[in-house]
């Protein structure tokens, strides 16, 4: 159907060019299948009708097929710059590099909804495909609930935000020329984030299905955990990538701004982290059932909130929301039905669930309960800080208020620090009842090291806030306690290395995963703390030849040169960096101007090492009066340890991956008795 | 072709729902055998933990006991809960399978646009060449006009302005029209085009400069429809909605025949009329069309001073002029209707029918609710009696 013809007559042979309409029709078919799937299997589970329950499997495959067809159709329209599709007109341009044309498919509101729905149906089909060990009734109910979400999204898309709206005759070219959004990091950011958001949908569906069925047990928790892990990993990677993008591309030198758009992705992450841990208790001890179900519901609810709130423009202003009331009302309705409905179901059914295993106040269960409580509180803090300005604006009739980093730093960090302390002890605690004095005894040495490490930093660094040192001490504590727990498990230095090696390879991968992830958080904390507490920043007017010293570096500003790029021109500053008189490197920050798009971007120059980043950006002279004649605004930052953030994030994701690869956790996990007896002990 | 693809897709959709009918399930796992599997696995894990020394012997025994107790509870529960699975309900599956294509086609019939082709950017080279050619010619025209020592002919500037308007370059268009507007020969149309360009350049906002242009256009020709229309827009933006509505309706009332601009007048009048609770108006009330005599009232008054022969010759010459013009402009629907009317007044029934039939062909492409359809039908019926 793709025509590459360069024939003069563009109207000739139009019959074979119908992909946008095929995409539109495929979406209608997907909606029809979702409607069937949302009714038939769940009725089948109720009436124990095997045929109806099985229909879920095939309609889930059908949905993913048709949504894929639609997605590819839209992508084709973007790739060929088919400006008869309104979405392409508004979000692309014939001159865009191919990669960004492809990424344009999910760059817009409509396209991102389509991607969302695609991932949703992929997860549904994955459950249908890999969940052969899940009881038929639970699977049927789960897939029906998943189809309800599908129906919500497909109707929202088809009736208020259709990606296949057409324009005829087509305009001569597309309208989007935004150079800032043409970035690889940004192109990959939404898919990862969405994979996380939507991954939690399947956990939500499992939770609602379990509530309907009225039973949650160890088996249920085990089926749910891999999905939770997969979603959590994607979300972690998505958030880290977004933060990395902001750091390198925006030219502000910050990696987290407590911006509402960031917060709405962070909240499901916090909740999802709690869910991940809560599900362990449900699996191992048959306890925390209500917690796990509630967390599953809340995590997905926050994902929905995140998707919709960003998409509706509600965050920029309540006013923007009112501009498109049709969309806004639909969103509110959908949120009310899904969140309100599932919570009401929870309120009704949760009390009927049987209580699980008992435990003492000092036990691993209790430790994970603290984890649940703290993470939930932290989520509440972020939610409050994010939504309060909106309520304020709505209540006062338009007065604006901004809740920024000071609030979050003051409210969020003190809530999270006790969690870091608990994280150090938690893995040492045993199930049911634990011996706290014994654990603390084992951690004496770790505590001592943490204090010593902090003192060493205090001696080397020139001052800093108390909270900074406290956080640092806890990061040391967490890192070393995690390593200590791992060495204890494998009995490192307690016998021959070969014994330790054997023990390490005998240890389940999920145990290694936990160690890696917990250590990863500590590593990321070093980055958070270093780049926040000991960050140095200089903003000044400089004349060529000026010398600036920052963070132990000497920076000389050699001047600015006008350079030309493919579709922009730039003022490029030249800086020479040296330390103790020794030449290190040159930095070339640019200020690019794109004449066609009439916009400018900052291309910062960074000298990146493990110890820290030297970060330079340049701007036009503030004014052209005599005092600043020939001067430039130069901004130089030194951010110690900032790269530890990305390293730590990568460790978190890898840890999740290791845990996911644990064969006991694999999808369709439980082994049969026969397999158990036949198996070699090695795992 | 497109419908074939839709039919194929729908068939696939139908099969996806209908498939369970053919395949009998072989992988029905029920709670009864899967839950204990998980618990057995846990039992195994406790053993391994004990081997590794992660837990003590006493802890392991306690854990094993608890897990065994759970296995027992579980199997008791499933024994109670197990009911026969049924496999009826085939009719519901068939019905659901039929629903899929029915829903998709039903939705698509309302929301789809099968008539719009998809056109890749690379296939539009001809169009782009055309656009480039127009842009090139426009630039040439602009150069010629600006280098002309006498300032360039007014026709040239008007052509340039109209081209710019079509290209969406309204500010440039306003500049071109503005040059002619300063000249003594500027007509009402020049000022109304200037006003239109100025308003379009400001995304529909009537600026003071546009108001001045509208006033000039109205002074020169109070009946200039474009001037009247933008005057109404200006009034409405000032808040004088009633006055704007009156102005539009008055101009409609003064129309002697159907003109394409009347449709936008009626639409605008109805749009603003709802804001002040005026009853909606219909185009049919304002388009006299064939009921109006061919020659205008003025022509007839002039003709009354003539002798009978002279008068007949005058009317014939008018009619012939119209007929000759229509040979050159055969698509002029209103012209053919007027000609038909003129012949009928002159009593030339055959010619009248020929002219009206031409109009009928042209009218077949007009919208169903075009009021001219009704008048034409009546006129033809009268002639064919």
Automatic annotation (TrEMBL), chain A:
Residue ranges crossing the lipid bilayer per the database entry: 25-44, 56-79, 113-131, 143-161, 192-212, 224-246, 266-282, 291-309, 329-348, 369-391, 411-431, 443-460, 466-483, 511-534, 641-661
Membrane topology: Multi-pass membrane protein
InterPro entries: CcmF_C, Cyt_c_assembly, Cyt_c_biogenesis, Cyt_c_biogenesis_CcmF
UniProt-listed GO biological process terms: cytochrome complex assembly
Keywords annotated in UniProt: Cell inner membrane, Cell membrane, Cytochrome c-type biogenesis, Membrane, Transmembrane, Transmembrane helix
One GO cellular component term: plasma membrane
Its biological purpose: Required for the biogenesis of c-type cytochromes. Possible subunit of a heme lyase.
Protein name per Swiss-Prot or TrEMBL: Cytochrome c-type biogenesis protein CcmF
Species the sequence originates in: Litoreibacter meonggei
TrEMBL record, chain B:
Biological process annotations from GO: cytochrome complex assembly
Keywords tagged on the record: Cytochrome c-type biogenesis, Membrane, Transmembrane, Transmembrane helix
Broad class of where this protein is predominantly found: other
Record field: transmembrane: 91-110
Transmembrane helix in keyword set: yes
One Pfam family linked to the record: TPR_8
Gene3D superfamilies: Tetratricopeptide repeat domain
Cellular location(s): Cell envelope
GO cellular component, one term: cell envelope
UniProt KW Transmembrane keyword: yes
Residues annotated as signal peptide: none
Name by which UniProt lists this protein: Cytochrome c-type biogenesis protein CcmH
Lineage, broadest ranks: Bacteria, Pseudomonadati, Pseudomonadota, Alphaproteobacteria, Rhodobacterales
């Amino acid at each position: 159907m793709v025509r590459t013809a360069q024939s003069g007559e563009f109207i000739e042979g139009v019959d074979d060019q119908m992909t946008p309409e095929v995409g539109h029709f495929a979406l209608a078919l997907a909606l029809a299948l979702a409607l069937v799937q949302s009714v038939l299997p769940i009725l089948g589970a109720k009436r124990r009708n095997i045929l109806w329950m099985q229909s879920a499997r095939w309609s889930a495959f059908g949905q993913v097929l048709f949504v894929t067809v639609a997605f590819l159709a839209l992508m084709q329209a973007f790739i060929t710059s088919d400006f008869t599709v309104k979405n392409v007109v508004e979000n692309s341009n014939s001159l865009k590099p191919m990669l960004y044309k492809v990424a344009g498919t999910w760059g817009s509101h409509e396209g991102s909804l389509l991607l969302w729905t695609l991932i949703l149906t992929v997860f549904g089909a994955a459950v249908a495909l890999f969940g052969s060990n899940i009881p038929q009734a639970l699977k049927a109910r789960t897939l029906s609930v998943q189809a309800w979400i599908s129906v919500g999204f497909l109707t929202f898309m088809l009736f208020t935000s259709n990606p296949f709206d057409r324009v005829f005759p087509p305009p001569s070219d597309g309208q989007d020329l935004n150079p800032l959004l043409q970035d690889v990091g940004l192109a990959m950011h939404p898919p990862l984030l969405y994979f996380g958001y939507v991954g939690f949908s399947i956990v939500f569906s499992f939770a609602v299905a379990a509530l309907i069925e009225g039973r949650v047990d160890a088996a249920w928790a085990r089926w749910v955990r891999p999905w939770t892990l997969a979603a959590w990993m994607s979300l972690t990677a998505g958030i880290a990538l977004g933060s990395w993008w902001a750091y390198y591309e925006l030219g502000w030198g910050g990696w987290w701004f407590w911006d509402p758009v960031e917060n709405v992705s962070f909240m499901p992450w916090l909740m999802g982290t709690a869910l991940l841990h809560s599900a362990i208790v449900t699996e191992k001890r048959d306890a925390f059932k209500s917690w796990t179900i509630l967390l599953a519901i809340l995590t997905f609810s926050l994902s929905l909130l995140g998707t919709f709130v960003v998409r509706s423009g509600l965050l920029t202003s309540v006013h923007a929301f009112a501009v498109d009331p049709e969309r806004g009302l639909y969103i509110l309705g959908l949120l009310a039905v899904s969140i309100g409905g599932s919570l009401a179901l929870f309120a009704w059914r949760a009390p009927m669930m049987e209580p699980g295993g008992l435990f003492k106040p000092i036990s691993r269960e209790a430790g994970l309960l603290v984890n649940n409580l703290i993470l939930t509180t932290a989520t509440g803090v972020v939610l409050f800080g994010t939504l309060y300005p909106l309520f304020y604006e709505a209540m006062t009739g338009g007065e604006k208020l901004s809740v920024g980093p000071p609030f979050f730093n003051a409210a969020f960090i003190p809530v999270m620090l006790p969690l870091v302390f608990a994280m150090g002890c938690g893995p040492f605690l045993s199930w049911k009842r634990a011996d706290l004095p014994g654990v603390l005894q084992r951690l004496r040495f770790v505590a001592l090291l943490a204090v010593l490490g902090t003192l060493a930093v205090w001696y080397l660094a020139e001052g800093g806030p108390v909270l900074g040192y406290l956080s640092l001490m806890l990061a040391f504590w967490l890192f070393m306690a995690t390593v200590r727990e791992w060495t204890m498990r494998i009995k490192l230095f307690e016998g021959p290395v070969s014994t330790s090696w054997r023990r390490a390879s005998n240890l389940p991968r999920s145990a290694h995963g936990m160690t890696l992830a917990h250590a990863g958080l500590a590593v990321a904390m070093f980055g958070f703390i270093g780049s926040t507490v000991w960050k140095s920043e200089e903003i000044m007017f400089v004349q060529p030849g000026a010398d600036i010293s920052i963070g132990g570096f000497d920076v000389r500003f050699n001047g600015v040169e006008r350079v030309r790029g493919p579709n922009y021109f730039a003022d490029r500053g030249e800086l020479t960096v040296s330390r103790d008189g020794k030449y290190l490197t040159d930095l070339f920050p640019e200020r690019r101007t794109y004449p066609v798009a009439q916009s400018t971007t900052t291309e910062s120059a960074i000298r990146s090492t493990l110890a820290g980043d030297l970060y330079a950006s340049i701007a036009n002279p503030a004014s052209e009066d005599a005092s600043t004649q020939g001067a430039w605004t130069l901004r130089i930052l030194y951010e110690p340890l900032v790269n530890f953030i990305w390293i730590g994030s990568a460790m978190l994701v890898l840890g999740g991956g290791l845990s996911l690869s644990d064969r006991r956790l694999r999808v369709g996990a439980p082994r049969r008795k026969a397999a158990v007896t036949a198996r070699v002990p090695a795992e | 072709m497109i419908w074939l693809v839709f039919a194929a897709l729908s068939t696939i959709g139908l099969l996806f729902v209908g498939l369970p009918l053919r395949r009998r399930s072989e992988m029905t796992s029920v709670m009864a055998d899967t839950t204990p599997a998980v618990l057995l696995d846990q039992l195994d894990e406790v053993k391994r933990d004990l081997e590794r020394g992660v837990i003590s012997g006493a802890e392991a025994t306690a854990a094993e006991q608890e897990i065994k107790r759970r296995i027992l509870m579980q199997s008791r529960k499933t024994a109670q809960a197990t009911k026969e699975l049924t496999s009826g309900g085939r009719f519901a599956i068939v019905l659901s399978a039929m629903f899929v294509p029915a829903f998709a086609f039903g939705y698509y019939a309302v929301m789809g646009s099968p008539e719009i082709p998809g056109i890749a950017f690379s296939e539009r080279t001809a169009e782009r060449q055309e656009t480039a050619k127009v842009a090139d010619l426009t630039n040439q025209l602009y150069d010629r006009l600006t280098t002309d020592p006498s300032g360039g002919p007014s026709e040239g500037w008007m052509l340039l302005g109209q081209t710019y308007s079509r290209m969406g370059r309204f500010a440039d268009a306003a500049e071109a029209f503005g040059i002619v507007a300063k000249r003594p020969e500027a007509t009402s149309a020049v000022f109304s085009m200037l006003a239109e360009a100025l308003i379009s350049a400001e995304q529909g906002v009537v600026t003071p400069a546009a108001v001045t242009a509208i006033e000039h256009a109205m002074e020169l020709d109070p009946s200039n429809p474009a001037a009247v229309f933008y005057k109404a827009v200006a009034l409405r933006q000032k808040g004088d909605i009633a006055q704007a509505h009156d102005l539009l309706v008055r101009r409609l009332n003064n129309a002697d025949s159907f003109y394409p601009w009347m449709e936008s007048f009626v639409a605008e009048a109805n749009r603003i009329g709802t804001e002040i609770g005026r009853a909606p108006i219909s185009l049919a009330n304002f388009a006299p069309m064939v009921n109006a005599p061919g020659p205008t009232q003025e022509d007839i008054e002039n003709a009354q001073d003539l002798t009978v022969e002279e008068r007949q010759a005058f009317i014939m010459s008018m009619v012939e002029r119209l007929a000759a013009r229509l040979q050159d402009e055969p698509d002029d629907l209103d012209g053919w209707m007027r000609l038909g009317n003129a012949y009928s007044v002159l009593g030339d029934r055959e010619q009248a029918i020929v002219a009206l039939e031409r109009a009928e062909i042209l009218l077949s492409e007009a919208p169903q609710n075009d009021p001219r359809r009704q008048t034409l039908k009546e006129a033809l019926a009268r002639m064919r009696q």
